[in-house]
Amino acid sequence: MTWNYRVIEFVDPESMEPWRAIHEVFYDENGKPNGYGESPAGVVWDTEVGDGEPSRIIEHLAMALRFPVLVETDFQPANSVVSGRRD
Question: Has this prediction a pTM greater than 0.85?
Answer without folding.
Answer: no
